[in-house]
Amino acid sequence: MLTYMIRRLLNTIPMLLVISFLIYLGLELTPGDAVSHMVDPEIASQMSEEEFQALREALGLNKSFIQRYGIWLTNVVQGDFGRSLSGGVPIMEIVLDRLPATLELSVFALLFSTILGSALGLISALRRGSVTDNGLTVLGMLGVSIPEFFFGLVSILAFALWLDWLPVGGRLLPEYDNYWDHVPNIILPGIVLSLMMTAGVMRYSRAAMLDSLSREFIRTARAKGLPAWRINILHAFRVALTPVIVLIGFRLPILIGGSVIIEAVFQWPGVGSEFISAVRGSDYPLVMSIALLSVFAVLMASLIVDVLTALIDPRVRLS
Amino acid sequence: MNKIVMLASAAALALTASHVTAQRASKLSDPRVRQAIAYAIDMDTIVETLFEGKAIVADSMIPNGGFKAEGLNAYAYDPDKARQLLQEAGWDGNQTLDVVYYYGDQMTVDLMVVLQAYLADVGIDMTYRRLEGDVGAQLNMLPEEGSDTSAVTWDIAYGAKAALALQEYYNGYRSGRSSYSPGSSKRDELVDAINASADPAVQKKAFEEFERFENEALSDIPLYYQQLFIYENERMSRNGGEYGNDQFNYDWNIVNWTVEPNENGKEVLYTNNAPAQFFEHPWLNPGIYVFSKIGLDRLLTADGSLTPKGGQLASDYSVSDDGLSVSFALKDGLTWHDGDDLTAEDVVWSVETAQKLPGTINAVFKATFDSIESISADGNVVNLTMKRLDPNVLLTFSQFPPLPMHLLDGVNPAEFQQHPFWQNPVGSGPYKIAEVQMNDFVRFVPFENYHGAVANIDEIVAFPSGENDANVIKNAEAGRLDFGFTKSVGDVKALEAMTHMRVVPANIPYTRSLRVNGFEKIAEN
After folding, report:
1. Any idea what DSSP says for residue B333?
2. Partner-chain residue, chosen from A33, A41, A170, that has the shortest CB–CB distance to B139
3. Residue B222: beta bridge partners?
4. Rounded to 5 degrees, what are φ and ψ at B154?
5. How would you classify residue A79: left for phi > 0, otherwise alpha for psi between -120 and 50, otherwise beta?
6. With contacts defined as CB-CB under 8 Å, which chain A residues touch B268?
7. Is there a contact between A88 and B179 if contact means CB atoms under 8 Å apart?
């Protein structure tokens, strides 16, 4: 397994190179650059070409595309992600500053959706055809179909503005004395973010559980007179977990990349909202760094899923 | 019903018309065509319906007030007159005008649909598109000297001119400086005249003459004056402080503002416009961001309409009769928030540094600083010798805040905004920064050594939500936004519906217009 993991890790290097180049190229092809976003059109009309060139020179934008990509890549390999073009703040400082907020939200959502979705999927499968099953199926479809921003706005209206139970958004307030004070701020965005994920996990785990329950080894277990809870949980559910883990695994990248929509709706100062600002401002070092981290997270998630699948399902062999 | 039909037909046109960009002679160079366009648009109805009455129909680029000329043609909606003018000008109904804009809001798209319908009604086809990327170049690229061919590819550009000084409305028309309006000697004389004196009476006469000239020429077709709306929670009081143009700085009496104390007995006021990644330096937008407004003082102060009215950091100031010598005497005992002395050297350094900033400086500041021959400090007095009279020198120093030389000296002007100072800046205003949680909030407390009275409110907490983001309404509803300003009509209606908020409109020099490309030909796209 170790050899397999090392080989997979080495494989990520060319993939990261190709993907980073494509993202850089995509940014290059978008109209305008950081300077055109920094300078107001009215002021630009009064600036000389020399002043524009001085600004572009200071920001390193006068070099060719390949030169800029080469410099960026060389620096990244040396661990230097550069500075934001708009504010001059080191990229790693920005990412590390935003990452805790994103991790809080995503870990909450991931745990909540995994536990709740698996449990509901299990119940739904065990009561196949019942009112509970049908009800959960409908809820699951709604959860998958309704966009996150809609859930977000409705929840703000209901729980923050009408009932005044939870904050309207944001993460930290001056009156918070310790870390736990801001837990109420996580609840709404965390639950909304987890709703769609919960619905997905529930539908996957239900289908997998039904498939598992129809297998012959379950019939054998029943014939041996094992208690129902033991058959359902230890035998059927364990096998049913494999596709669910795949689904959850591929959601791991949101731990790094954040959820752009939820962060925007709830004014959550995470990586996702920073990414959007950077794209809008053509702040290419920041865009590249966040994108690269997200791509790395996707590749790592794929590796973790493979390893976990092998650990859970003895039929799977890594090679 | 007619309007509905027009709107529907415009929508259909928008879906089917293609963008025609071949080099052409559109006859927009003929003033009669420009006048026809003005007559074809029913701005009264647009303001009443689309803007829900939250704008003022414009008859000139210059806003209503003391400098507005009397008797201007308002080009009231008259489609028959428009058709007649087009016929007289020999308008070719087979061409399609390329109209561009650079705003991203739905209201602008709606306005484009309506304009398309009105113009179609008189026989003018138009398509519209949003400029992306290097908007400045696409709007402002200048033609070669003496050429009759415009360097920009559009026929009409919808945009705004937001002026700190009224000269900004017309200085851009000077020969060789406009991308869409060919130069003329007559207009150059008018530009010279509005810049020739700092005397308001003389300026007024020059502006009126310019307005009458442009009222015929219509290089820009003025559409409407956008208003600013200041919103406040009922629990706060300005205690007599005036309301004015909140995009800039004026004497708003903030040290005497009060707010009902919270359950802990503390007076805390919530506002917006805090930074998300860095504090924006105040020499480009001197009054938009919260630190620029409450954390920095200017040499002079102004009233709500931004007319300089007295000293702020300066105890005294003078301008010679010819306008070529200006001096400011600083108050005694001024300090920065970090305790260092605020001196005349700080002012000199700030002006000299601002002169070197490429691009990211307010146009009025730049015009003033370009007019300075020399600047020096003599004790606590700052002396300016001007190369030429600048009519807005006092206005500039009522908006331009000096910055601390001891913290910024040696900064590369091209990387001014990237200096670490802008992560937690030090200022001179009535409130100083007590805590920065970047992208979460900034906490301000009264500056105990402020040269005026120490401010009343215990804390001002600012969140990163900005003027136009979607969070204004929910934050105001939740009591997390006690004070701010907006120009969004939709937000104003929602704020007015909240019983705990009051909304005060302020007239500001912010004119939306159609810039008409009056060159004989335009560049090919």
Report:
1. T
2. A41
3. B513
4. -95, 165
5. left
6. 174
7. no
ipTM of the complex: 0.76
| Cα B217 → chain centroid | 24
* pTM for the predicted model, two decimal places: 0.83
Instruction: Convert the pLDDT of each residue in A67-85 to its tens digit.
Output: 989 988 998 888 888 888 8
Task: Render B375-408 in DSSP notation, one character per residue.
Answer: EEEETTEEEEEESS--TTHHHHHHHPPP--HHHH
Residue B463 near chain A (CB below 8 Å): yes
Contact A12, A299 (CB under 8 A): yes
CA dihedral B218, B227, B282, B66 (to 10 degrees): 60
pLDDT tens figures, B198-255? 888 899 999 999 999 999 999 999 999 999 999 999 999 999 999 999 999 999 999 9
**Angle between helical axes of B31-40 and B106-121 (0-180°, round to 10):** 110
Q: B149-150 and B156-162: which strand pairing?
A: unpaired
Q: Which of B366, B418, B459 sits opposite A87 (nearest CB)?
A: B418
Q: Distance (Å, rounded) from C-alpha A270 to C-alpha A103?
A: 8
- Identify whether the C-beta of residue B249 lies closer than 8 Å to the C-beta of residue B388: no
The H or E element spanning position A289 is helix A284-312
Name the residue type at position A300. Answer: M
Q: Do B471 and A167 touch (CB under 8 A)?
A: no
Residues written for chain B: 525
Q: Which residues of B458-487 are buried (b: 16+ CB within 10 A; e: fewer)?
A: bbbbbbbbbbeeebbbbbbbbebbbbbbbb
Q: Which two tokens stand for residue B391?
A: 């009519």
Contact A52 B474 (CB under 8 A): no
Instruction: Please identify every stretch of chain A with a pLDDT value under 70, giving residue numbers as ranges.
Output: 40-49, 255, 257-258, 314-319
Q: Is the dihedral of CA A214, A217, A223, A229 positive or negative?
A: negative
CA–CA dist B138, A247 (Å, integer): 47
Give the CA radius of gyration of chain A: 24
Q: Which two tokens stand for residue B169?
A: 């409305």
Q: Is B333 left (phi over 0), alpha (psi -120 to 50) or beta?
A: left
